[in-house]
Amino acid sequence: MPQTAYGYISLEDDDETEVERLHDLITAFARAEGMAIGEIYVDRNMPSGRIVRSALTMLLDAVLRVEHSLIVVPTPEHLSNLQPIRRAIEVEIEGLGARVVTITGGGTPQLPHQRQPAIPLPRSA
C-alpha cells in the first residue's frame, strides 16, 4: 500500500498560475515516488513569519487521521523563510508522526537534515 502524502504550498501573494504550477509539481513528484496523494493544501497571501495558517491547520488535522504520512513541499521556504518558524512547524508535524519531504530541482526528495538543538549547547573545552 502506497504511503499517503499531502502537499503544502504557501505563497505571499495569490498568483494562481504559480499555485497551479506547484500543484502539478507536487502531484508529479508524489506519483513518481509511488505515494498516494491525499490533498494539496494552499495558503495564499501568507506572510512567512505567520505560524497560524488556515490551510496548514487543515493539513495538520488531516495528518492526525493518517499514520506515518508525508508532507511534500516544493521548498522548505513554503513552511517559512524564517528558520525558527520553519522549525516550529516541522516539530509540530513530526510530533504528529508525519515527515516533511522537500522537492529539489531534479525531483529528488530532500529529507530533513540532522536537527540542531533549538538552544546551542555549551561546548566543553
Walk me through what this model shows.
It is a single chain. The protein has 125 residues and is α/β, with parallel strands linked by helices. It contains three helices and five strands, in the order E-H-E-H-E-H-E-E. A five-stranded mixed β-sheet has the order 2-1-3-4-5, sandwiched between helices. Strand 3, helix 3 and strand 4 form a beta-alpha-beta unit. The longest helix has 17 residues. The radius of gyration is 15 Å and the shape is globular. The C terminus is likely disordered.
Instruction: Tell me the major beta sheet.
Output: 5 strands, mixed
Structural class: alpha/beta
Which spans have pLDDT < 50 for at least 5 consecutive residues?
A: 105-125
Shape: globular
What is the first-to-last residue Cα distance? 51 Å
Overall average residue pLDDT: 85
Counted by DSSP, the helix tally is 3
How big is the Rg?
A: 15 Å
Q: Helicity, in percent?
A: 25-40%
- Total DSSP E strands: 5
H and E string: EHEHEHEE
Strand content: 15-25%
Strand order of the largest sheet: 2-1-3-4-5
